[in-house]
Amino acid sequence: MLSRNPTAKHLHITLKRSPIGTPYRHRLVLQGLGLRKLHQTVVRPNTPQVRGLVDKVAYLLDVSAQ
């Protein structure tokens, strides 16, 4: 899960579970993060906005702070 490391500059976010059967708004969050395929990893800045998106769909993701 996501550790609250305020010194990390980037988050490595990986889609681990399929969004099939999830609420439409959760799929929009994944689209906003740039995640389309299973096991795809994206790097996003460690900001409160990105953390909020990650928290909404945390059950689908694997997040590590770098």
In short:
This protein is an alpha+beta fold and 66 residues long.
Structure in words:
The chain is of the alpha+beta class. It has helices at 24-33, 48-56, and strands at 10-15, 41-45, 61-65. The protein has a 3-stranded antiparallel β-sheet, with no helix packed on it.
* Beta strands, count: 3
**Element order, helices and strands?**
EHEHE
Q: Find the CATH topology.
A: Ribosomal Protein L30, Chain: A
**What value does the Rg take, in angstroms?**
11 Å
Task: Kindly estimate the percentage of residues that lie in beta strands according to DSSP.
Answer: 15-25%
CATH architecture tag: 2-Layer Sandwich
Molecular shape: globular
Helix percent reads: 25-40%
Average of pLDDT = 93
- What spatial order of strands do you see in the largest sheet? 2-1-3
Task: Tell me the CATH superfamily.
Answer: Ribosomal protein L30/L7
The biggest beta sheet, please? 3 strands, antiparallel
Q: Could you name the ranges where pLDDT drops below 50 across 5 or more consecutive residues? A: none
The CATH class label is Alpha Beta
Descriptive terms for the model:
single chain, 66 residues, alpha+beta, Ribosomal Protein L30, Chain: A, three-stranded antiparallel β-sheet, 2 helices, 3 strands, globular
Write the topology of this structure:
Elements: E1 10-15, H1 24-33, E2 41-45, H2 48-56, E3 61-65
Antiparallel strand pairs: 1-2, 1-3
